[in-house]
Amino acid sequence: MLGGVNIPFARGLAAHSDGDAVIHALCDALLGAAGLGDLGVYFPDTSDEFKDIDSRILLRKVLELVRKENLSVLNVDITILAQAPKLAPYLGEMKKNIAADIGMDAASVNIKATTTEGMGFIGRGEGIAAHAVTLLG
């Protein structure tokens, strides 16, 4: 599961929730930009309440926290680092999901994917990473 899209692949990500690294990176970026800590503060992996939870639900809860600070999301930029699978066919759907969850125009959401050219744990196919940046106003 990445960006709210179920991506068919022989491997998956191990996690307490659904393991959506894209949504988790975005949640941390939103919380960080608002000065509200990180995802683990609000949704600890020690809590059964969040076991196998859909990360899009967590994103909507994070947005509630951000909005309580009288802030709104102006834009989102996400980079996914993965050697495999190829993610280009899924980026549009990820963008639509995230824009819908945030309640903003999809033109203000950018998602891109790249590889590490075979280097490191990502290049060996042992995991992926996602980085997110957001502007709040």
Q: Explain this structure to me?
A:
The protein has helices at residues 21-33, 39-42, 55-68, 91-102, 120-123, and strands at residues 73-81, 109-114, 129-136. It has a single domain (21-136), classed as 60s Ribosomal Protein L30, Chain: A. 32% of the residues are buried. The longest helix has 14 residues, at 55-68. With 137 residues, the protein is of the alpha+beta class. It has a three-stranded mixed sheet, covered by helices on one side. It starts with 20 loop residues before the first helix and ends with a strand. The chain has five helices and three strands, in the order αααβαβαβ.
Estimated helix fraction: 25-40%
CATH homolog superfamily: 2-C-methyl-D-erythritol 2,4-cyclodiphosphate synthase
CATH topology annotation: 60s Ribosomal Protein L30, Chain: A
Label the overall shape. Answer: globular
Kindly, what is the distance between the CA atoms of the first and last residues, rounded to a whole number of angstroms?
Answer: 29 Å
Radius of gyration: 15 Å
**CATH level 1 name:** Alpha Beta
Report the mean per-residue pLDDT as an integer: 91
Stretches with pLDDT under 50, minimum 5 residues = none
**Strand portion:** 15-25%
